[in-house]
């Protein structure tokens, strides 16, 4: 089988895919980078030993697949252009920045026979993979509550060294609601094997850095199609050490709690297995980690999780295995954040989240149980 030729769009985040690419170098290789900023472009080209291109179209001409690691509002235009040219897409998170973009992306993915996958790397951290395996094995019983939090003080990222606003100034903190939901929601939706049907979003008000439109802390409650309750918190401004991967899970027969602070361990309680009223270390269930995620690529960021989306993507393209985060899962992880903005500006009113599987019919939301919430 010939090596998959992969292009990268957006050098800084794109570089974090290099470790994964080295690990799977016998099957695929990065052949070029597109990046408008000369310095970032040259740095990537030097590190990866590939040509740096000034035009995205030129990149698409040279590759079988593209990693879209550009600023968030470029994900859809670049993914759509690639799919329309027969180029497979591995997109950074979130999949889209508006409902209109989400529809456009869905239409392009449906019209194409190429793979679309979203690289939600937090779904691939070791604790999250083990909890997923336990959930699938029914060890927590029926799941009915989950939490996810992404708390990351990023004030220094909203302007560049000259004080000019970066893309994050508008797309992450220049509007309110949850503007970055997929790290927190993605693993939960995989554990629940479900999608969100409605959200209610409120915020703490603006206190730390009132220049920005987003509230310091934004929380949405979400109802899933099987009536589970999920709570997602985003905080990009508050002064505190970061905590980007907090999760909890509750089922009829067990619970999971991620660490809240350095030095703590992920822990689980499984009825009938754990000592009465006592947590166990999640590591005691480490043998449930799916074997394909045992070996972390050297240098892979985000606890080693950054390399696995690339591997699953290469498998999907070369072996035809379904991408674990396909267009529907990607939108299921993205749309609740977009809808949370509408809810936020309606003082937390419950707003229905479209089911992209039904967009064909022009309906948009499932009729039925969630309707009274909308
Ligand atoms: N999954 C994760 O853990 C994770 C972590 C960081 C960033 N991200 C995502 O990666 C993307 C990039 O984030 P970043 O931290 O690298 O941002 P960044 O601000 O550090 O870099 C963005 C780069 O994109 C370039 N750029 C601007 N317009 C472009 C275009 N049209 N096409 C290609 N490149 C363009 C800029 O010149 C800049 O070099 C975002 O979508 C972000 O959400 C994901």
Summarize the structure in short.
With 374 residues, this protein is an alpha/beta fold. It has helices at 11-14, 18-23, 38-48, 56-62, 75-84, 99-111, 126-136, 167-171, 182-192, 307-319, 327-344; strands at residues 4-9, 28-34, 52-53, 65-68, 88-91, 116-118, 143-151, 196-203, 217-224, 229-235, 243-251, 254-257, 267-270, 280-281, 351-352. Helices cover 29% and strands 21% of the residues.
Description:
This protein is of the alpha/beta class and 374 residues long. The chain has two domains: 4-121, NAD(P)-binding Rossmann-like Domain (Rossmann fold); 122-292 and 331-359, Dihydrodipicolinate Reductase, domain 2 (2-Layer Sandwich), CATH 3.30.360. It has eleven helices and 15 strands. The strands form two sheets. It has a nine-stranded mixed β-sheet with strand order 14-13-12-11-7-10-9-8-15, covered by helices on one side. It has a six-stranded parallel β-sheet with strand order 3-2-1-4-5-6, with helices on both faces. Strand 4, helix 5 (75-84) and strand 5 (88-91) form a beta-alpha-beta unit. Helix 7 (126-136) runs parallel beside helix 9 (182-192) and helix 9 crosses helix 11. The radius of gyration is 20 Å and the shape is globular. 47% of the residues are buried. The structure holds nicotinamide-adenine-dinucleotide. Nicotinamide-adenine-dinucleotide binds next to helix 1.
């Amino acid at each position: 089988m010939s090596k998959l030729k992969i292009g990268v769009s957006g050098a800084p985040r794109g570089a974090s895919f290099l470790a994964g690419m080295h690990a799977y170098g016998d099957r695929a290789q990065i052949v070029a980078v597109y990046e408008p900023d000369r310095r970032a472009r040259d740095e990537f080209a030097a590190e990866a030993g590939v040509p740096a291109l000034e035009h995205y179209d030129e990149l698409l001409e040279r590759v079988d697949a593209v990693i879209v690691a550009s600023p968030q509002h470029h994900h859809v235009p670049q993914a759509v252009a690639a799919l329309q040219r027969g180029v497979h897409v591995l997109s950074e998170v979130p999949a889209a920045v508006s409902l209109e973009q989400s529809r456009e992306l869905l239409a392009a993915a449906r019209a194409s026979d190429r793979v679309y996958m979203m690289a939600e790397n937090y779904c691939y951290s070791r604790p999250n993979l083990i909890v997923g395996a336990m959930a699938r094995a029914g060890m927590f019983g029926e799941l009915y509550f989950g939490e996810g939090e992404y708390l990351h003080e990023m004030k220094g990222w909203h302007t560049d060294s000259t004080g000019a606003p970066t893309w994050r100034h508008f797309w992450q903190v220049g509007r309110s609601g949850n503007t970055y939901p997929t790290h927190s929601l993605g693993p939960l939706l995989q554990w629940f094997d479900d999608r969100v049907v409605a959200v209610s979003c409120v915020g703490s008000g603006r206190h730390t850095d009132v220049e920005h439109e987003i509230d310091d802390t934004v929380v949405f409650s979400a109802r899933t199609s099987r009536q589970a309750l999920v709570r997602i918190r985003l905080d990009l401004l508050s002064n505190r050490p970061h905590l980007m991967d907090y999760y909890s899970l509750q089922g009829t027969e067990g619970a999971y709690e991620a660490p809240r602070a350095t030095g703590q361990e992920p822990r689980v309680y499984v009825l009938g297995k754990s000592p009465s009223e006592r947590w166990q270390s999640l590591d005691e269930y480490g043998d449930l980690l799916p074997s394909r995620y045992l070996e972390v690529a050297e240098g892979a960021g985000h606890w080693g999780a950054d390399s696995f989306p690339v591997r699953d993507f290469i498998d999907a393209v070369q072996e035809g295995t379904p991408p674990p985060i396909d267009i529907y899962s990607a939108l299921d992880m993205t749309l609740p954040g977009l809808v949370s903005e509408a809810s936020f500006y309606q003082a937390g009113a419950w707003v229905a989240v479209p089911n992209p599987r039904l967009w064909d019919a022009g309906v948009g939301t499932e009729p039925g149980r969630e309707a009274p919430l909308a």
